[in-house]
Amino acid sequence: MKVILLEDVKSLGKKGEIVTVSDGYARNAILPKKLGVEATTKNLNDLKLQNQHAEKVAAENLANAKALAKEIETKKVVVKIKSGEGGRTFGSVSTKEIAAAAKEQTGMDLDKKKMHLPEAIKALGVYEVPVKLHPQVTAKLSVHVVEG
């Protein structure tokens, strides 16, 4: 019997796949547990429509992420940090501080978890901070660390 999986099933397949299983396994395990539905023409058409909708939503999300990346790359954020003699700083600048400064200065709500600092910012200067907006889109935010 052909079955469309509604959820990931270990050692059988991923959600949305059409798999062939024995009639008993389908009747006694897959269908009662709502792990899948029988692959009738109606269910196949529904799956096709769901896939088309998911592709459309994914394309829109990618386009939105690219537009936001262009906007982010034109902005610069100034972060103030205390420093002593010779420009040596007390502590370092975290992604939380960068996200708060970006929200305050540019109005953009960036997630601190999506920022990736290759190493801690412990000196004054200009830094490029990568912000992962989408699995395929990463923007570079210009961060100016100044004495404050």
Structural summary, described in words:
There is one protein chain. With 148 residues, the chain is of the alpha+beta class. The chain has 2 domains: 2-64, 3-Layer(aba) Sandwich (Ribosomal Protein L9, domain 1), CATH 3.40.5; 68-147, Roll (Ribosomal Protein L9, domain 2), CATH 3.10.430.100. The chain has helices at 23-30, 41-74, 95-106; strands at 2-5, 18-20, 36-38, 76-81, 88-93, 121-123, 125-134, 137-147. A 3-stranded antiparallel sheet has the order 2-1-3, with helices on one face. The chain has a 3-stranded mixed sheet with strand order 4-8-7. A two-stranded antiparallel ribbon has the order 5-6. The longest helix has 34 residues, at 41-74. It is elongated, with a radius of gyration of 25 Å. The N and C termini lie far apart (70 Å). 15% of the residues are buried. The model has no long low-confidence stretch (mean pLDDT 91).
